[in-house]
Amino acid sequence: MDAMTIDIPLLAIDVGRGTQDVLVYAPGRPIENSTRCILPSPTVVVAEQIRRARGAGLPVFLEGYLMGGGANVAAIREHLDAGLQVTATEEATATIHDDPARVRAMGVRIADRAPPGAAQIHTTDYMERELRTALDLFAVEYPAALAAAVQDHGFSPHRSNRIRRFEMIEERLDAGDWNLYSLIADPPPLEMTRMQAMRRQAPGALVIDTGPAALIGALCDPRVKAWAEKGIVLVNAGNGHTLCCTIQGEEICGIFEHHTGALDRERLQRHIGRLRDGSLTGKNIFDEGGHGAAVRRPLSGEGVVATGPNRRRLLPDAYQAAAFGDMMLTGCFGLLQAWNRVRGI
Asked: Chain-centre distance of CA 193, in angstroms?
């Protein structure tokens, strides 16, 4: 089904580590003419707000929802290292770690109210107020329906969330005969606490993982979709994570997920080769600091397709997928396709 067959306005937001990519889909309008923007990721925005408070010598109070970590957690550590107080609500602390005891051990205080003089900072992956304001300035109507992608490691307070995340990927694949769309659960499982936080803010939203959104979106490129029927390697080289799979049609034959910063061209090519021949193991990837790997069957063929902001650095010789002419919106296009598949609208 073509993404352009959706018959309702839809806001698609792909929340990454460096950027949040936004597409306002309007029925009957060519995708190429849709309103779109690439903005700093919410974690980057919150990190900058914390750093501004540090520059002013102010303590900070974090309140709101569980959101993705990364830049914001780094800024929290910097704030504490500077001798400034960080206080957070119980839910906001889950952004730092699922175990409150570890958050307190860092020096973060957990409380319901802001200390006197603290800079109050809202934690969220869904910057609805800011997005509504921005779209309203350009007379763009804010859609009632939302599809969003975030990377969720799952609730895992006392065990590596890298292990738990990849376990959930394997569980979904096994339950769905290794079909690409089996990686989507609507609604998401309760232990996907980041996704649940998004849905509390936007009831009824379709919320899926960024990895499958990118893979599905890359297949919106007509060349990629045609090549996939014979079997290809498909790589999403994101700012934080790289997801790689061998895929034939909609069947995932093998998959691994790693941290982009830990990869160079040689290492990635080596892992791709072992994914193809079926010899790559989860231990190979986990021991390097990645998430894991799983192989259902080997898949021969030389075709490699790359998407994501780090695609040219890691895979300069691969086919550079760009669905509807815009690589940065790959995840958003995947969200449109996912909406078609699971909501049937």
From this structure: 14
